[in-house]
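RETRY 2/3 - previous attempt timed out on the joint model. Re-submitting the same 586-residue input unchanged.
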Amino acid sequence: MSDSGLALTDPRLLLQAARVFNVADANFRNAAATVAEQALSALKMQRKEAPARVEAEVEQAIVGDCAALRLAGRVDGGYKEAEALLTEQISKPQANGRVDDRRNDINGRLHLLRALARGQEYKDRHRTEQPSDQGMIDLREAIAKDLEFAFAQNPRLEEINRPFWRPDPKQAGEADLALAYGDGPELTKVIQTDDADGGRARTDDRTTSSS
Amino acid sequence: MIVLLILTAVVLAIVLAMILALEIQRPGLLGRIWTNLCPDFTGFTRRDGRVNADRGTNRTLHLITTATLVFIVMLGVWAAGAGVLRTAWIYSCSPDGFAPSTSPGQCRGSLSLETWSDRGTFAAVLITQVMRAVGSMLGIALMAGFVGGAVGFLFGIPRYGARDASQQQTASQTSAGAATRQRAARLQLNTNLIQISDWLTNGIVVLSLVEVKNATGVFFTTTQTAAEWLFNSRHGSPVVIAAAIIGSLVSGFLYGTVYTQLIITPLLAAIDASLQLPRGFGPEGPVGNRRLYQEEFLAPQISRMSNPPTSSYQLDAETLRICHEYDDISLEDLICNPDVTFTDILNWSIAKALLDDYGAAARGYMHLLGMRASS
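RETRY 2/3 succeeded.
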């Protein structure tokens, strides 16, 4: 078999592999995280050496997957690295030098993930700070802005990701936004989910899935 | 006088019997012969400008077959006449019976058959001679036709267009999953005969050019000998036997070549196609790259949730069809083939993932990453 390319420098292939490993079975879970990180490294190398070849969809998918891995604790770095990663992608200037949030996050997933990262930060700071502190209020407002942007990009996200602010008992550990949601009006202005219609969280959605 | 009448009657009977025999099998033979010798070429091209291959194939084969049939009938007629004339010659040499030697001027010591009636003896000799002449001429023609057909088969057998390494590399570089059929497969067509045909055709051409003078001499010596043995070189037999051999060789060669190219080549191609791997997924194919990441057709995105809600996507019929082409191909079968390409394995893995067989897909990707990492 002959092939001239190098798989370990092909972000697209690595992204595919990581996602397939992630859902294959438990034996491949660690491989999924490792390959996703390899995809991120390959992406960074491509950004540096051949920025014209970077594909927006692949780039955003890789960044989103790596941020999700950090938020889930499957990769070291936690919410800080996840937020840094997401902010770098969201604030990435286009070829004309301007920052275009919409093009940098086509389906709103990155803003949602950044809201989750900030939600974890909020939970972390909640141990030492009061919800009425200005820093906490600013953080809730930042979370609300991210959610607002994400829902504007893809309204389905609000329905699918309800467990992050309105978790079922089994999902309490993953409710990154529950505290921020309950501590002030900032998030409730943005989130329109009706509890009575909590079942709206559909699983047959074609456009995206949970973050 | 009686003898002449009998001879005429026998010849006519033979010719009519041949025509009748053919007519019984194929009604309207004469009309078909005419139609095939003068093909109607209207309709060979379709409205869209493409050649009507089926019609062309049938017409071409019918034309060659008809010409060969006419040639054989003419040979048979000549052979029947030669048999009759030889009988007359034998009778004139030794009217009282068979002559053991029929060389010119050596009609001595005839084998007397006095117990037979004159007419019965004559009829037996006549029939035997006609059968001998017709049988030998058809035998010669058939033999030459087989030889010509075999050579025609060798010349007509298709070259196996296996892609060489550079072509494979080019295809891989074009795109991962380029929509080109890959040659790597679990089984491959045996190309020994094709290689032998290459060698033989080259050898035949070279030998023919080098030995053309000697071959001509040997050919005419052979035909002269056959004419002497069969017809004592009478009735124009040296020329007719040479013509029979050449004509049959040409007919057989044409038939063999055309039949091989028009009938056997598509069959080989169909078999080869059935042994190849499926086409796979190209970037412009049903599973486009954009959809792959926007809608996660291949595999769900990695989620923050430990148990994210599952999504079910309806693949379109074409994508499903391509996926199911990989159903009976295992990864082990695939990687055992030394000619399998990276794209083959990638397509296989994508197909498994799209069918939600993520375990198999993961093994495929694992092999790809390991393979690439080591390359």
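Chain B touches chain A through 50 residues (CB under 8 Å). Closing ticket.
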